[in-house]
Amino acid sequence: MADEELQDLDSGAKKAAPASGKNPLLTILVLVNTIAMFGVAFFQYQMHQKISAVPSVQDVVSAEMKKLEDGEAKEETGEAVEEDGLLFPLEGFTANLAQGDGPRRFVRLTAVLKFSKESNEDEFKARKPQIRDTIISTLNSKRPEDLLKLEGKNFLKEELKSAINSFLVDGHIIDIFYVGFQIN
Asked: In the chain, is it the N or the C terminus that has fewer CB atoms within a 10 Å radius of its CB?
């Protein structure tokens, strides 16, 4: 009798098992996943195309060098060369940085200010103490972590340009070039 019950259970199990067919939900999920992967690949390809279209530093430098060579050739032939602005070098700065978690740190900075062509050089010479004070005050408010990154140095340039331009009357600063930048 036990054998008959065992056979009945065996045959019942075979009858209750679903037919072996593909599950439509699984097929839909695989299809959606494949479409999503192709979408991500497409957008990555588009981003790669945009990034490769941006000129590299080497391209920009070589273009500037070519402009310089052309400008030098014009000077040798006697043609006028248009200048971008007036360069005004500043003596070096040593300023304490804002106290962070670690020991006291300071920055040594040597910079050249580039003023617009219509600027008056006498105004820069007269305002040199104000310019130096503005730069030192701004540096005193910075932490070493802020200035160690390239973004921090670029932000410092923009901050210094706007601070100095706020009290200039005849001209304005176009750019600031770091000749020396050291954090100790």
From this structure: N
